[in-house]
Amino acid sequence: MHLLLLILLLLLLVLGPQWWARYTFRRYAGVLPRIPGTGGELARHLLDRYGMPDVPVEKTDKGGDHYDPELRAVRLSPDNYDHNSLTAVAIAAHEVGHAMQHQRNEKKLALRHRLVKVAQRIQQVGAGTMFLLPVAMAVTRAPSAGLIMAAIGLGSMASATLVHLVTLPVELDASFGKALPVLISGHYIQPGDEAAVRRVLQAAALTYVASSLASLLNLARWLAFLRRA
């Protein structure tokens, strides 16, 4: 019974933010005639207004809503690009917030970009190490070799998750240091919509972290495999 409760708490901790973010996005995804433009149109307008006419706004099915600092492009999912909903407006402003961070050469965004690249490499190393673990144990027949590889693999996977979590301040700044002030001061949202937009922006900031926390399930799965091995 205690083990079941522990598992449920772990699932809630890891998957809870992801579920809440998805629920929030769906909740405010309804088209509202009072919103004068789509998320794609708002993103284009804000980029032009803040001196970034060279930054394109692209509709994409891959990678979800994000700002690409290498190609300097704001990318929005089809729903947020084409629809005039509170979710679309808030997400568009959030991604433009990252473009503003880039334009202003803010060190946190540059650090995040470097850390994300490091995290991706670390995750690749960790995944490769874990897949090679059974082979190494079979070839060497030495438990110590298996333990060393396991430690390397699990450590790399855990450190990659930690790197993602460290970037949360960048996401919060894009939502509440950039997007929300722009939406309010520019009267792009009505006062009655501010609470809903805040929730969407919170979800946008936590989406990145939620994905990182979800990777902990993969780590737990490998730990369970090693205990049985």
Quick summary:
With 229 residues, the protein is mainly alpha-helical. It has helices at residues 2-27, 39-49, 78-82, 86-103, 107-140, 143-166, 168-185, 194-228; strands at residues 57-59, 66-68, 73-76. The protein has a three-stranded mixed sheet with strand order 1-3-2.
Structure write-up:
With 229 residues, the protein is mainly alpha-helical. It has eight helices and three strands. The chain has helices spanning 2-27, 39-49, 78-82, 86-103, 107-140, 143-166, 168-185, 194-228; strands spanning 57-59, 66-68, 73-76. A three-stranded mixed sheet has the order 1-3-2. Helix 2 runs parallel beside helix 4 (86-103) and helix 7 (168-185) runs antiparallel to helix 8. The longest helix has 35 residues, at 194-228. It starts with a helix and ends with a helix.
